[in-house]
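Design a sequence for this backbone.
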């Protein structure tokens, strides 16, 4: 029976830009087959996205602003090298665009998706629980709640039965 509220042809035709936030953890490469399959099947542009956590909130401590800025610049350069290596290792045969920003991770993902008109966000989860979740929060949860488009989350640690 066909669902009268879901038209697969229309839905599949709407996904032309996919945003893939990564964090360079061991979970990031697990997303690659999903990214490539969806990108190919949908004929969509794939954009890899990394956010360097802003150190600006340390400005209240006695740390010279120039030191924080210098450190952030070094982190950005390191992130660019890491992104280049990630693309070379996992997307040599697949076209992707890359983006690196600084700020709050969830906010930057949401804002970038809105600004650039993404149709889908595909991201991994870390499955934090208890105190870890209270302390670190859940970027995926914040993105799901605030995203301007559908979000597909993948648990990279789930074992296939």
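Sequence:
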């Amino acid at each position: 029976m066909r669902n009268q509220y879901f038209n697969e042809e229309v839905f599949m035709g709407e996904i032309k830009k996919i945003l893939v936030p990564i964090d360079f953890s061991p979970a990031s490469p697990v997303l690659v087959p999903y990214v490539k399959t969806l990108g190919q099947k949908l004929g969509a542009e794939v954009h890899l996205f990394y956010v360097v956590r802003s150190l600006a909130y340390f400005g209240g401590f006695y740390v010279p602003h120039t030191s924080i800025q210098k450190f952030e610049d070094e982190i950005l350069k390191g992130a660019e090298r890491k992104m280049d290596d990630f693309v070379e290792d996992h997307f040599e045969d697949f076209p992707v665009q890359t983006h690196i920003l600084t700020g709050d991770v969830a906010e930057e993902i949401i804002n970038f998706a809105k600004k650039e008109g993404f149709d889908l966000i595909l991201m991994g989860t870390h499955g934090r629980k208890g105190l870890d979740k209270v302390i670190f929060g859940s970027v995926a949860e914040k993105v799901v709640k605030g995203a301007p488009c559908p979000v597909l989350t993948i648990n990279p640690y789930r074992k296939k039965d």
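The mean pLDDT is 83.
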